[in-house]
Amino acid sequence: MRTARVLVTPKPVINDPQGATVKQALNSLGFAGVEEVRIGKYLEIQLQASSDAEARSEVEQMCRKLLANRVIEDFRFDVDPAAEADDAGEAVADAAAAGDANADKGPKAAKGARGGSGEG
Amino acid sequence: MRFGVVVFPGTWSDRDMRLALSGVEGAEAIPLWHKERDLQGADCVILPGGFSYGDYLRTGAIARFSPVLESVVEFAAQGGLVLGSCNGFQVLCEAGLLPGALVRNANLEFRCQWQHMVCERGDTPFTHGIHTGQVLRMPISHGEGNYVADPATLSRLEQNRQVVFRYCDSGGLVDAEANPNGSQHNIAGIVNERGNVLGMMPHPERCADADLGGLDGLRLFEAILRTPAGARGAAGSSAAPLGVA
Fold it and tell me: Which of B34, B116, B128, B203 is catalytic?
């Protein structure tokens, strides 16, 4: 499983009245340095793909077809490259947790664990 | 003449649309469910107002991929008449049947009010019988009706005279004060180059009964009925209903 993080923002030429209003609010709260605010959308997508390249190509197509309207919006995204390593780590942790929880019910898991330690 | 009124989850003007059409002599209106591909022999397809798919992601963005839209795109390519009002206009832009996009009203307000607009094309299949320069009064009801397009598209729209309706005051003056949502060039409604697809933010179905305050919407439906069948772009006909280049 990989995680893609997609940002969809109004094109620079598009007037963003929400952003302008938030900018004014920030100014009136004393954040005098705020010169511009643009409001867009953030999407987090969990997807299965056989490689980072495939995931990136799929997300690109998603953006072009549906997630952004390119008349008014730009998009950019990244695909988490560490996702697979994390997944593997999580799987190990999950298995260990399951092993602990089921130690008294699961003779196979318990055996495996003992065998493992015996061999080590 | 048969009108097919498309219904998406979240559409809210479909019944009003059919009710309004039921008062037009010679018109028959049927609902077209978004999951169906069969347009059931409709001579004109209407995409009514509402909040299709809850306006999730962007207005019209999800509706644009529904099965019925595939048929509507094909129907429009054959010259069939398609009218989108409010959310229907947003769907037509998302589907690429009309250029540009509709974004959040510049004033960030949801505008629900009577609105004047001037008709700049009395020669489309949707406006036969309305004079060019005539001021109409119709309800608007939207939060995202701010029409935007890049400069090249805008100048092409103007050059081809594809702007059919422009927001104005009661005297027909088109200026920023009469603009309820910040639309570029005060655009309230446009047609495609061929002239068989009209998108407009105002609601004609809400002013097709004198008891509801106006009849200007009725004029649009009557115009469609007056359009000769040949110019309605029946399948296979290459006759352009509107003489734009």
Answer: B203
* Residue B177 CB contacts under 8 Å (≥ 6 apart), including other chains: B169
Residues 47-66, chain B, touching A (beta carbon < 8 A) = 57-58, 61, 65
Tell me the domain boundaries of chain B: 2-232
Does the distance separating the beta carbons of B65 and A69 come in below 8 Å? no
Q: Is residue B205 within 8 Å of B48, Cβ to Cβ?
A: yes
Q: Which residue does chain B place closest to A12, by CA atoms?
A: B150
Residue-range domain boundaries for chain A: 2-81, 85-119
Cβ atoms of B172 and B67 closer than 8 Å: no
Minimal Cβ distance to B104: which of A13, A17, A67? A17
What pLDDT does residue B227 have? Answer: 83
Report the pLDDT value the prediction gives residue B70, as an integer from 0 to 100. 97
Can you list the alpha helix ranges (DSSP code H) found in chain B? 14-22, 67-77, 87-94, 151-159, 216-226
Is the pLDDT at A92 greater than 60? The verdict is: no
Digit-coded pLDDT (tens) for A34-88 = 999 999 999 999 999 999 999 999 999 999 999 999 999 999 999 987 544 555 5
Is residue B159 over pLDDT 50? yes
Distances (CA, A) of B54 to A20, B62, B67, B73: 25, 9, 18, 22
ipTM reported for the complex, 2 dp: 0.82
Where do the DSSP E strands lie in chain B?
Answer: 2-7, 28-33, 44-47, 81-85, 101-103, 111-119, 135-142, 146-148, 163-168, 187-191, 197-200
Q: Which CATH class is domain B2-232?
A: alpha beta
Name every residue whose Cβ is closer than 8 Å to that of residue A86 and which is 6 or more positions away in sequence.
A80
Cα separation, A120 vs B2, whole angstroms: 80
- Topology of the domain comprising A2-81: Mth169; Chain: A , (3.30.1280)
Residue A117 has pLDDT above 50, yes or no: no
Listed in sequence order, the DSSP H helices in chain A are 17-28, 52-62, 83-101, 107-119
